[in-house]
Amino acid sequence: MDISRDGSMMGCGALGGVNIIDTESGAEKQQLRHQTADYAGGVDAVAWAPCSRRLAAGMMYGDSHQPTVVVWDVRHAAPELFFPIGSGQKSASGLGESTTSLAWSPDVSQLAVGLEGGTLQLFASNSGQRLREIRAAQGEYCVYAFSPDWRLVAGGCQPRFDAPGVKPKP
Known about the structure:
four-stranded antiparallel beta sheet
């Protein structure tokens, strides 16, 4: 879920797409769905572009459960970009890596994508071309922040504890 910069709309992940909610009335304004997409589940992450005209959503696609980002032009309720993300590795459940978070650069030229395996990928937002990939030393990226001049992106990590019965120290 994410709220547009002007505060007027909220994008909420749903099965196969995103619902746009009017924040003042709470009413659903529109549903963003790809007419031919074979979504394998719900939306894992949503991010509004700073201009509030574009919205990105991370989700699984098709029988192979390929992690995918869809970018919509909200004014026309039309998908304008559809590109695969991730390393191609499968999670412990046998599915592709889930999207943990998305963030747009202030100038809307780049999209940062966090994956459950601890990878941060940067993409060109007009083409879907992968620009860079950074692996977390431990854990997974869960939050991002771009610097105002968009030269830096910082990712906060949360350690993972995969061993049964092992809990993090307070």
